[in-house]
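Throughout this review, each integer encodes one residue's backbone shape. One record appears below.

===
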Amino acid sequence: MNNLPQPDDLFEEISQLIEQARNQVQRSVNTAMVQTYWHIGRLILEHEQQGERRAAYGKGQMKRLSDRLTGRFGKGFDATNLRNMRRFYEAFPIRDAVRPELSWTHYRTLLRVENPSARDWYAREAAEQNWSARALERQIGVLYYERLLSSKDRAPVEVEAQEKTEPLAEDPKDYLRDPYILDFLNLDSQPYQESNLEQGIISNLQRFLLELGKGFAFVERQQRIRTEDGDYYIDLVFYNYYLKCFVLIDLKMNKLTHQDVGQMDMYVRLYEEQKRGPDDNPTIGLILCSEHNHTVAQYSVLKDSQQLFASKYLTILPSEEELKRELERERALVQRKIEEAAREYRVDT
């Protein structure tokens, strides 16, 4: 009698082995990163305060430490993240109380909860209920803990939370695409979440602006801006050496909204605070919307020299009509390539 596994059984057994191995890798990397950041926070606090609850560590010293760590280990050790590590240790001073099921993104979200009892409760629930970082953020945002405490009938509140809470992602690829994991391992972070259409348009816009020859110097693509409350990504960043200022470009695959304008205004203000040098002119923010071939160029400048500066950049930056034509051309080109690839795929299969 032949006891060898059948092809389907063999496939399933091998698949389970691979999934178990990948999950082990994900858990190992996440645990190592969280524990390392906890220890870094402890060392920083002990060094700067000698165990006392007083601020004695200047911004300059933190910046120098950040620069040296970044030079040796790559991304992930900017001053903001180092301060988050210190806050992490302060909020969770007992190492054994740090839950290995939770990611660094979970803990950065928990740091925004000021009430220690609420913070500990959210950490415990997130681990036991397999909340994703996004689900944890939602529960904190709707005051789940506080509503449970004040509610005489807890059942409806718990049912609502379960219905609107997504489970922790099981696919290890979700963790290996996490920018914090990529930074910790010193891997190249790519904007995986971008659609092919948006990615293609951004690539062509980058070349288009450089080909204009009007002083554009490329700085970075999908540049991450860190804040205490989260990370944000700017599609394209240029520096214009005629205008002597940064130019931030964000592409939206829909019609312009108030939220888009508010987001760009935040980007500009962050750039003014974090990136702009003393000899630079005010930062420019440019929003491009491509849905239904509709283009909106929204310039955002700060400080008192708005009108004076506006007259300068209008002669340097591409006009709205130029941007509209380029967006329409590139959208059609990229869309055609996607459709051709889809047809080829259907023929091959």
